[in-house]
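User: Hello! My lab partner asked me to get a predicted holo structure for this protein. The small molecule is pyridoxal-5'-phosphate, SMILES included with the sequence. Please write out the structure tokens.
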Amino acid sequence: MAELLAVDPSRLAFVLNASAGASVVYQSLMDRGPVTVLTTNHGYGAVTMGAERVAARTGGRASVVDIPLNATEDEVIGLVGEAMRAERPTLLVIDQVTSATARAFPVDAICREARSLGVLTLVDGAHAPGVLPDPICREADYWVGNLHKFVSAPAGRLCLSRAGPGRSSFR
Ligand SMILES: Cc1ncc(COP(=O)(O)O)c(C=O)c1O
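Assistant: Hello! Below are the structure tokens for the protein in complex with pyridoxal-5'-phosphate.
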């Protein structure tokens, strides 16, 4: 698996699923005092709820940055950066490819900025393996992915008919 994902095997661990991986990260923050988390309005329910739970259990705070559906990459970086500078969270949780719209966020740039601000990052890559050519976000402090989605699914094929536009079909 480390070979498939192009990562150092010593930095990779198997967990039950992406939600369980996120819970491991949250649990590891429990003895740090009040944990402040920043999520986005595109986050996956269970992962966001876990972040809110660690904030509540440690006496910290949870906040959400709203990213409009049509925000450009630069706008996403700007909005998340602005929220991180305002909130100074312990942990930013951000999707690599969102569940609701399949939108890819510029996680490398966001994680780099987070590191410069002293903010830990958890990238939810549940939809990345099997979809993105290089699915791991190496700029993140923590990355979780799923193997039961696209890695284990039959590959899709798009066949374009010779008859030209309007005659394409999926097989
Ligand atoms: C973006 C995202 N994160 C996390 C999950 C959770 O995956 P699992 O239920 O396998 O933990 C999903 C599930 O669809 C998802 O779409």
